[in-house]
Amino acid sequence: MRLDKYLAQSGIGTRSQVKEYIRAGQVQVNGIREKHADRKIHAETDDIVYREKSVTFRERVYYMLNKPSGCVSATQDERYMTVLDLLGKDRRKDLFPVGRLDRDTEGLLLLTNDGALAHRLLSPRNHVPKTYQALLARDLTSGQIDLLENGVDIGEEKLTLPSVFTWKDRQKKEAFLTITEGKFHQVKRMFEAVGNQVLSLKRLSMGSLVLDESLSPGEYRPLYEKELEELLD
Ligand code: URA
């Protein structure tokens, strides 16, 4: 396997990041600094060291993606680009997105191959909070905000669970909504239920994980150790 691919698949960084690390002399193969990203290595027998630490092939990997509008939260699709296509063709083949954002929704999406974590984050029983930033078509009355926060009828069996609404900028009709469920198009349907419309939507957080605003739409990075610890906690 190529050295850059091995490092990327071990969760050290994206393919372009690990190429930088190699160029910068931060990677050693069997005790010798290696500056060629295309160096062929044997994952089982070669000793790969990054910044003085031995790199073991990680079974589980976790990436934070700032999903751009226009691609679908699926592993494959016949019509549209998928969120996994953004990771390039050398990505690990067992990755999947944790949950779905609509094609036109941007923001935080976790990509992993850890099925147990995905299950925990998505299970309706766990009520994992997710915060969205929405651009609305109209202002809201305090009565409509009360309805949003206490439960609205979006055509499901039950009203939505309590949520938290705050204005980001009322003049610009930008708002935050934190929900603890994940029904299909839930945020859009909640605002529609109170006579409004979501013009654009971005997810800012999921559980303890917060979107890294330094990631432009379409960019991703491995989770930091601390983010992962908190998420697995
Ligand atoms: N709610 C929506 O309406 N759309 C999303 O993409 C996520 C939550």
Verbal overview:
A hairpin with a 2-residue loop joins strand 1 and strand 2 (32-33). The chain starts with a helix and ends with a helix. The protein is of the alpha+beta class and 233 residues long. The chain has six helices and 13 strands. It has helices at residues 3-9, 15-23, 115-122, 142-150, 186-193, 225-232; strands spanning 27-29, 32-33, 48-50, 53-54, 62-67, 96-97, 106-112, 130-136, 164-169, 174-179, 198-206, 209-210, 220-222. Strands 5, 6, 7, 8, 9, 10, 11, 12 and 13 form a nine-stranded mixed β-sheet that branches. Uracil (URA) is lined by residues 101-102, 105, 185-188, 201.
How is the topology of this model organized?
Elements: H1 3-9, H2 15-23, E1 27-29, E2 32-33, E3 48-50, E4 53-54, E5 62-67, E6 96-97, E7 106-112, H3 115-122, E8 130-136, H4 142-150, E9 164-169, E10 174-179, H5 186-193, E11 198-206, E12 209-210, E13 220-222, H6 225-232
Parallel strand pairs: 7-11
Antiparallel strand pairs: 1-2, 1-3, 3-4, 5-7, 5-13, 6-7, 8-10, 8-11, 9-10, 11-12
Helix pairs in contact: 1-2
Bound molecules: uracil.
Give the helix/strand class: alpha+beta
- Tell me the quaternary state: single chain
Write the H/E string, N to C.
HHEEEEEEEHEHEEHEEEH
Bound molecules: uracil
Low-confidence stretches at least 5 residues in length (pLDDT < 50)?
none
What would the principal axes of the Cα set say about the shape? elongated
**What is the number of E strands?**
13
Main sheet: strands, sense, barrel: 9 strands, mixed
Radius of gyration (Å): 21 Å
Mean pLDDT, to the nearest integer, reads: 95
Determine the fraction of residues in helical runs and give it as a percent range: 10-25%
Question: Helix count?
Answer: 6
